[in-house]
Amino acid sequence: MTNITCDRAGVHVQFPGWESTMTGLPKLSIPRSAIRGVASEQGWTSEILGMKSGLVISGYRKLGTFRHPSGVRRLVSMKRGLPLLRIAVDRAAVGFDEILLSTDSAESIAADLRSDVRS
User: Is the pTM of this model over 0.85?
Assistant: First the structure.
């Protein structure tokens, strides 16, 4: 399962084994200065994410890069039954507009990051 940690530098995401193949990344570091918004949600989102490069097991798992018709580019690692961490980021710095991650720590990571979010 995707490993998510947060420290003073930012959020660090590691995609082990086959997950790195689906996302095209073994890891991603999101500097706090690149975070534009953060929220935690009770479960995964049912919104239309767009065209995917990765894996979707309907109703259970979404993993990969999704591009919405509006142009929004998302990195997604969602698993049904887990809280969702939603991070809006500076695309120029990170390569994505939004990061969606399922983790039991969603609320605590979001709370930690909220104090640093620039408007």
Answer: yes
